[in-house]
Amino acid sequence: MTAAPVNDEKLSTEKRSTKTPTGITGLDEMTGGGLPRGRTTLLAGGSGSGKTILGLQFLANGARHYGEPGIFVAFEETPARIIANAETFGWNLEQLQPKMLAFIDAQPPPDLVQSGSFDLTGMLIALEEKVDEMKARRIVFDALDIMLALLPDAAAQRREIYRLHAWLLEHELTGVITLKAESSNSGPFGFMQFMVDCALILNHTMVLGVSQRNLRVQKYRGSSFDENESPFLIGSSGFEVAVSRTLGRSDVEVTNERISSGVARIDTMLGGGYYRGASVLITGFPGTAKTTLSGAFAEAACARGERTMFVSFDSDANEVIRNLGSVGIRLERFVDDGSLNMVSARTITGSAETYLVRIKTLAKAHRARCLVVDPVSTLSKSGNELTAHSVAERLIDWSKAEGITLVCTSLLDEMAGQSEAGSPLQISTLADTWIHLNYVVQAGERNRGMSIIKSRGTAHSNQVRELILSDSGITVTDTYTAGGEVLMGTLRWEKESAGRHAAEAATVAARLDSARLDAEEAELAARVKSLQVELAAKQSEKLVRARSAEIHESELALARERMSQLRGTDEAPDLPRVTR
Q: Could you tell me the CATH superfamily of domain 18-109+120-241?
């Protein structure tokens, strides 16, 4: 038998319909889409952990973004106080009331004198009318432990919890019950962990004086979820959960476009500059020009018309602008025209998560295409050592997802040696390009050296170059070696000067040798010409002598013949006349 084709889109829709999105950043990712629809979720945590805020934000987002009316049942605070406390988050709860959001004041009177037993039946009947009136789909019972404390024993508590749970299921409401977490599992917290379909645990602790907040999904029936503890914070827009995303995602756009580092010779060393959307790490000791290279990148980005944000942890924004101006980097005009946003992160207090969320919020508001964080190693200051690496990872991951070119500097401990071992972040493996700056001490001088340790996806120079800062800007010199050693500073100048003098002396000597050879050549040429003339004269003399000998011999022959004729008796014949 052939199986019927599966409609993937229908299955996906049905799967989504089993969950109610919270609209809270990160939480829906942890739970795979939201809280279980039509079921009960336990939200437990200590005092100040953010239970009320999360529950209220769940209702506000449902009413505003998903069209699901909600009811907030308050057992600990009055609705007026809850609404007033939520004003800073910009949710505008008044606009949602009364059709989309309702508050029920269920606080026990402070002078309550309990007489006999009681249950939740009356309250649930009243709530049922409100649910029908609003057609509510979501409901939050905040601080239910206040009401449970009025019950005489644990059995009564369990009875009313069952009653409430059954009522929620009957009306198919997506319910959230907030409860104070207890150290033991003997109270209502321990019982409800097993009864509900989903349980979220909030923790708020202090580490070396720094606030740390974490959320964990303890259970989620019928669904996979992120089992690891994730940090969260309560920001200007409410509850935000920081969830790590995996590098190498298919949704990240990869491009071969290159952008300038701000220094032409560094671009050449990198084979054309940084890749668009890449993460660049610049490490070095204090004073090795990390901020300067970052400023050059920001200036070049703004000059291209790209909106850029420069986050400084070490100095005030105006000080950074002034200091960079001393090496020819002018950022004032870009700040004035709004393309550059200088942020002094020294004004941000809190955990590393607070820094990350603040940076992301500001970058989104500025619509930044390029981002500088100087130095990112500040994230690992006291109280953040355990979370700093994770925060740095998520910063790089987020920038890639947003297509933002990220340049981070990392301060090394000079006592730890010239490696990233001096940095507690250890993010060099995540960065696409790693530029290392260090000091080279020679001849009593401390000079700046620069090398490219890695640059993924492109050939790059493996040479150590000297980095020179001056009023006119940044200069990267050519490599100069002598005896197998890279020379910098005065020692290099001395060697270069000596080399120039030696070259000049060699040039003069070559010219003198050339002149001497020319003279000798001329002398030899004259001697050759004189010998040639003498040879011609000898040859002429030889010819003349030969001709004279021939004539003389001929004359002697004629004379002998003439005399012979004169001595004879016969008449001598006419002799030929000899002419000369």
A: P-loop containing nucleotide triphosphate hydrolases (3.40.50.300)
Cβ–Cβ < 8 Å for 280, 453: no
The reported pTM is 0.67
- Kindly report, residue by residue over 443-501, the tens digit of the pLDDT: 667 788 889 999 998 888 888 888 888 888 898 887 666 555 666 666 666 676 777 77
Question: Which pLDDT score, from 0 to 100, does residue 171 have?
Answer: 92
Would you say 199 and 44 are in contact if contact means Cβ atoms under 8 Å apart? yes
Using only the alpha carbons of the chain, give its radius of gyration.
Answer: 48
Could you report how far apart the first and last alpha carbons of the chain are, in Å?
141
Angle between helices 121-134 and 154-170 (to 10 degrees): 20
Taking the C-alpha atoms of residue 311 and residue 322, their distance in angstroms, rounded to an integer, is 15
CA distance readout (Å), 267 to 445, 473, 482, 543: 28, 15, 26, 83
Considering only the top CATH level, what class is 258-479? alpha beta
Low-confidence ranges of the chain (pLDDT < 70): 1-17, 110-118, 182-189, 208-210, 244-252, 347-350, 381-387, 413-425, 442-444, 479-494, 496, 569-580
CA distances from 220 to 36, 129, 195 (A): 8, 30, 11
- Tokens standing for residue 207: 């580490």
Q: Quick one: which of 120, 112, 122, 107 has its CA closest to 72? A: 107
b or e along 369-407 (b: 16 or more beta carbons within 10 Å of the residue's beta carbon)?
bbbbbbbbbbbbeebbbebbbbbbbbbbbbbbebebbbb
Cβ neighbors of 365 (< 8 A, separation 6 or more) are none
Cα angle: 58, vertex 61, 62; to 5 degrees = 80
Boundaries of CATH 3.40.50.300 in the chain?
18-109+120-241, 258-479
- Listed in sequence order, the DSSP H helices in 382-452 are 385-402
